[in-house]
From TrEMBL:
Family assignment from sequence similarity: Belongs to the glutaredoxin family. Monothiol subfamily.
PROSITE patterns the record matches: GLUTAREDOXIN_2
Signal peptide bounds: none
Residue ranges of every copy of the Glutaredoxin domain listed in the record: 13-77
Record keywords, A-Z: 2Fe-2S, Iron, Iron-sulfur, Metal-binding, Redox-active center
Binding site for [2Fe-2S] cluster: C26
Protein name: Glutaredoxin
Chain residues that bind glutathione: K18, R55, F67, C80, D81
Amino acid sequence: MDRIKAEVEGHPVVLFMKGTVQFPMCGFSSRASQALKAAGAQIHSVNVLEDPEIRANLPRYSDWPTFPQLFINGELIGGCDITVELFESGELARMVTEAQKPA
């Protein structure tokens, strides 16, 4: 749980996904990462397929059962459907821009 917290708090935009942004291993992870890229996000991704401990504990940490999971500024935003809806409404770009502003 400490590792998950460190990932979430250490980066403005974190996507826990199956695979990587360059090589997503499921359609939901692919769509979420594409929406983030299109919104201008600098994505820090965590491949849950390579880390069984994070894969097992993240649903308990976030109280969200599926992958991918998007966190912005330490807050769970949601999975693929929510990420795509936010992108389509223009809200995701605003959220990402705010999160990535230098302090």
